[in-house]
Amino acid sequence: MGFVMPKEVAVEGVPDPKSDGVPVRKRDGGRFAVIRFSGQMDSKLSKKQEAKLRQWIMACGLEGETKAEAAGYAPQSTPGPLRRNETLIRLKQPSDESQTKQVSDE
């Protein structure tokens, strides 16, 4: 589980964790392909959405990193259909800037 702090908060310094078991680390930015979906997050749903996202990445001629990340934005008490989840895959940088393309969901 992780928490993302807004840039403004991070610049001033994040609060110290109350437990030594909670590490604080900086995460590098970058370009990500993201698919948003609702439902109760489990490994089956997560893998299904990751597969859809990887197909989309390939169809766009892009290349993604091996590791996918899952993100959930609702408390456990939120009913499944109302939960907002995302699967994120970091995109590899093209070797040539001319290969960069703008991609939309049209």
TrEMBL record:
Top-rank taxon, per record: Bacteria
> Composition bias, kind Basic and acidic residues: at what positions?
83-106
Region Disordered: list its residue ranges. 70-106
Q: SUPFAM superfamilies this protein is in?
A: Probable bacterial effector-binding domain
Question: By what name is this protein known?
Answer: SOUL heme-binding protein
